[in-house]
Amino acid sequence: MPSRNPTGFDVREFKAAAHPRSVWAKKDPWARYEAWRYTGPFSRWNRFKGLFPGLGTATVLFAGYCVYEQLFLKEDHGHGHEESHH
């Protein structure tokens, strides 16, 4: 039998209590008070969505401008005068 830790600290018990699905986590009296941090407008997705406001609109407008430029704003490289490259 392994010797008992003089401090009374049991690593196995600590790991079991730290597991999110442990009995201790379910009986946590503060869990419902902390739940608001991860739901509704504070969920991970909603926090990420607001990180770069306007990025989606800017991306669509930039892509549209690139297509417009390629289709309608092509410049002739001859410029109307004859230049021969020897």
From TrEMBL:
<keyword id="KW-0496">Mitochondrion</keyword>
<protein>
    <submittedName>
        <fullName>NADH-ubiquinone oxidoreductase B12 subunit</fullName>
    </submittedName>
</protein>
<keyword id="KW-0812">Transmembrane</keyword>
<keyword id="KW-0472">Membrane</keyword>
<dbReference type="GO" id="GO:0032981">
    <property type="term" value="P:mitochondrial respiratory chain complex I assembly"/>
</dbReference>
<keyword id="KW-0249">Electron transport</keyword>
<dbReference type="InterPro" id="IPR012576">
    <property type="entry name" value="NDUFB3"/>
</dbReference>
<dbReference type="GO" id="GO:0022900">
    <property type="term" value="P:electron transport chain"/>
</dbReference>
<keyword id="KW-1133">Transmembrane helix</keyword>
<keyword id="KW-0679">Respiratory chain</keyword>
<comment type="similarity">
    <text>Belongs to the complex I NDUFB3 subunit family.</text>
</comment>
<keyword id="KW-0813">Transport</keyword>
<keyword id="KW-0999">Mitochondrion inner membrane</keyword>
<dbReference type="GO" id="GO:0005743">
    <property type="term" value="C:mitochondrial inner membrane"/>
</dbReference>
<feature type="transmembrane region" description="Helical">
    <location>
        <begin position="50"/>
        <end position="68"/>
    </location>
</feature>
<comment type="function">
    <text>Accessory subunit of the mitochondrial membrane respiratory chain NADH dehydrogenase (Complex I), that is believed not to be involved in catalysis. Complex I functions in the transfer of electrons from NADH to the respiratory chain. The immediate electron acceptor for the enzyme is believed to be ubiquinone.</text>
</comment>
<dbReference type="Pfam" id="PF08122">
    <property type="entry name" value="NDUF_B12"/>
</dbReference>
